């Protein structure tokens, strides 16, 4: 079961590959702003692509609500950079290659088409103080988060 609303969000620092180099993105550095975390099972999969491309197309709505959006997957940073570029995803895709964040947020699945330790499709909103104010996770990777609920919380 994913971490609950009204709990402190586990802090993390993950790598993102961008423009031929690596940058570290830290939730601690984003305190003072709202952050939307979208955990996705696999880069380039059709449902993940639909989810992240639709969010990217409406990214200004999230900005108007005062939130930054980050995608998190256990894929390697090179694959995520390629996916971000090819699909024109307008927000950072962060690699949880070591699977620490999916376990901290309790969204690791035991079975994603036969693979273990993959992110469940999940969404969280972290407020300016670092508290989880929205938590959603599905055991069915084909189910997308209820984005209207997520935006209502923002």
Characteristic key phrases:
alpha/beta, two-stranded antiparallel sheet, 154 residues, globular, 26% helix
Q: Care to describe what's here?
A:
- Helices cover about 25% and strands about 30% of the residues.
- With about 150 residues, the chain is α/β, with parallel strands linked by helices.
- Strand 6 and strand 7 form a beta hairpin.
- The mean pLDDT is about 90.
Structural class: alpha/beta
**Low-confidence runs:** none
Radius of gyration: 14 Å
Order of helices and strands: EEEHHEHEHEEEEH
Q: Classify the helix fraction into a percent range.
A: 25-40%
How large a portion of the residues is in β-strands, by DSSP E?
25-35%
Give the beta-strand count.
Answer: 9
Cα(first) to Cα(last) distance is: 22 Å
Largest sheet: 5 strands, mixed
Tell me, rounded to a whole number, the average pLDDT.
90
Strand order of the largest sheet: 5-4-3-8-9
The general outline is globular
Please give the count of helices.
5
